[in-house]
Design a protein that fits this description.
Elements lengths: L2 E4 L2 E4 L2 E8 L10 E5 L8 E5 L3 H10 L21 E5 L6 E3 L9 E3 L19 E4 L8 E3 L5 H4 L3 E3 L8 E7 L7 E7 L4 H12 L4 E7 L5 H14 L4 E3 L29 E4 L7 E8 L8 E7 L12 E6 L6 H11 L5 E6 L2
Parallel strand pairs: 4-5, 13-14, 14-15, 16-19, 19-20
Antiparallel strand pairs: 1-2, 2-3, 3-5, 3-12, 4-9, 6-8, 6-12, 7-11, 8-10, 16-17, 17-18
Length: 352
């Protein structure tokens, strides 16, 4: 039995049907969004527009019993979207041509999309107002499974035909009731760090897994680097290393680019925090002065009071410099907590 939520959405178990209007983009136009919300300023690269709100559509998925996965959230170190696989009727191939045409469409997943502090869908009021994006757009509730940069996707999917603008079509997303990605939480123990890797390997043997990977405060920085290197090898579409526990560090923090040590090689200047064993930590801001001759700014160190990182709101990134690789992560975590400010990106080096 169909259960109408709104005139344009209907729900049965594991299935959501809705109406969308063609944008009228011409045949061969690059398409970045299969579905966007009505009023989107990206209608010129969207195949269809949906008149219902994002909240109503997401509510329909919930009523249908289709579970939400996890949206991309860089602030949490979650760089992979994940969720159950969806079928779509009519199929993508009826409206979208592929370039090259011998490459299959990736699997479609329902991740739920990024939400704001009140739990409302970000896509409702923020451009591009995506419901189903072909690139990895954090706000989009529906995505392809995998990591797809916008620039890499552009031109890969094209409008197959020119549809009459405003012509309405009924689409149905469905879930098989089985396909789920496992969610796994792992803390790498200082005494047996390899046990965490084995736990991930065992979980991945039966299907895709999203892993929240954290590090024990008792672990040394040197051992954390070894684990981080192993995670970088297995981080993939099948094993998605997605974030860490609050107050911990995403594994990429232990694998910064060596080139970033050189301040002139950075796109922007982070805070620099030098940890001292006696607690006399040094926090530096690197000010850029572009009112000089040449193509590069003059860089000047300025010491900030420790705990007052919030007084320098120009960056959300901090480089931490340790005296040696034997420093325990607990000391790093405590310092991070007491630094102040809204730092989201951390990278750690040994030595200057």
């Amino acid at each position: 039995m169909l259960l109408p939520l709104l005139a344009l959405i209907s729900v049965v178990t594991n299935s959501v049907s809705f109406t969308a209007a063609a944008t009228g983009i011409k045949k061969g136009t690059p398409v970045e969004f299969m579905f966007a919300l009505s009023g989107s300023d990206h209608d010129y690269e969207s195949m269809f527009l949906i008149e219902d709100s994002a909240a109503d559509l997401i509510s329909a998925f919930k009523k249908a019993g289709i579970p939400s996965g996890g949206a991309i959230d860089s602030a949490k170190g979650r760089l992979h979207a994940y969720g159950p696989y969806l079928g779509l009727k009519p199929s993508l191939g009826e409206f979208i041509a592929r370039n090259p045409d011998n490459v299959d469409f990736p699997e479609i997943i329902y991740c739920g999309g990024l939400t704001d502090a009140q739990g409302k869908p970000v896509c409702q009021n923020q451009s591009p107002n995506s419901i189903f994006s072909f690139y990895s757009c954090a706000q989009s509730p529906i995505l392809f499974d995998g990591q797809f940069n916008q620039g890499d996707v552009y031109g890969r999917f094209l409008a197959k035909d020119t549809l009459k603008k405003g012509e309405k079509y009924v689409f149905t997303f469905s879930w098989d009731g089985k396909s789920l990605i496992k969610e796994l939480t792992v803390e790498f123990d200082a005494a047996d760090p390899l046990a965490g890797l084995q736990k991930i390997k065992s979980a991945a043997e039966t299907g895709p897994v999203s892993v929240e990977a954290s590090f024990s405060p008792q672990m040394s920085f040197g051992d954390a680097v070894k684990i981080a290197n192993a995670l970088s090898v297995i981080d993939s579409q099948k094993v998605k290393i997605n974030g860490c526990a609050p107050g911990n560090l995403f594994y990429r923090a232990f694998l910064p680019l060596e080139a970033w040590r050189d301040r002139t090689e950075r796109l922007q200047q982070p805070l620099e925090l030098y940890l001292s064993s006696d607690g006399n930590h040094k926090l530096l801001a690197i000010d850029e002065d572009w009112n000089v001759a040449g193509d590069n700014p003059k860089l000047t160190e300025r010491r900030l009071e420790f705990g007052k990182a919030a007084s320098y709101p120009k960056t959300d990134t901090c480089f931490i410099y340790l005296t040696d690789s034997n420093v325990k992560l607990g000391a790093v975590f405590d310092t991070m907590k007491n630094l102040g400010g809204d730092i989201r990106n951390w990278y750690i080096y040994v030595g200057k």
